Amino acid sequence: MEEKIRRIFFEQTFSAIKRDILTTLGILSFFLGAGLIFKFVFQFSVPFPIFVLLFLWLILYLSHNYFIKFRKTEKDLEDFYFRNSLIDAAFVTAVAYYLGGAEGIGFVFYILVIILPASLLPKEKISFLSFFIVFLYSILLFLEYF
Q: Is 86 within 8 Å of 114 (Cβ atoms)?
């Protein structure tokens, strides 16, 4: 009976993470497309590194979509999602830097990096992720200050 409950919980977690990956893929595709439209149709000055970062991030999430199938235990699934959240925080920092830095809109995306995994990961991992995000944002602030 306990094995069945564990399996049901694993399936629910797996589908929630899969849904998050697909949602993020859609969001990244939207921003990449919007950036291209703003750059080439409306002639806005969008930095080239933004496109490189968004493209690499999109490729990374396409690989997440493939590699998640190989996770067999709940612990392995949580670790996979946690590592991906840490990588997301690093990408958000890089994108925030090119979008105008700490005073730009980039800090809003940090909230998404914390909120989406908060319901799926244990408190310890969410706390570490939060401190990691504060650390990355502090680095962004210090780099701009100096």
A: no
CB pairs under 8 A, 24+ apart, for 33-37? none
Degrees to nearest 5, angle at CA 97 with 92 and 98: 105
The model's pTM is 0.85
Quick one: pLDDT at residue 106?
A: 66
- Residues 86, 129: contact at Cβ < 8 Å? yes
**In the predicted model, what is the mean pLDDT of the chain?**
86
Question: One-letter amino acid identity for 20?
Answer: D
- pLDDT category of residue 105 using cuts at 50, 70 and 90: low
> Under the phi-then-psi rule, with left for phi > 0, alpha for psi from -120 to 50, and beta for the rest, what region is 45?
beta
Query: Is a pLDDT exceeding 70 seen at residue 78?
Result: yes
Host H or E run for residue 90: helix 74-98
| Residue 42 DSSP symbol | S
109/96 Cα distance (integer angstroms): 8
Cα 4 to Cα 7, 10, 18, 74: the distances in Å are: 5, 10, 21, 13
Alpha carbon separation from 63 to 15, 46, 136 (Å, rounded)? 16, 26, 24
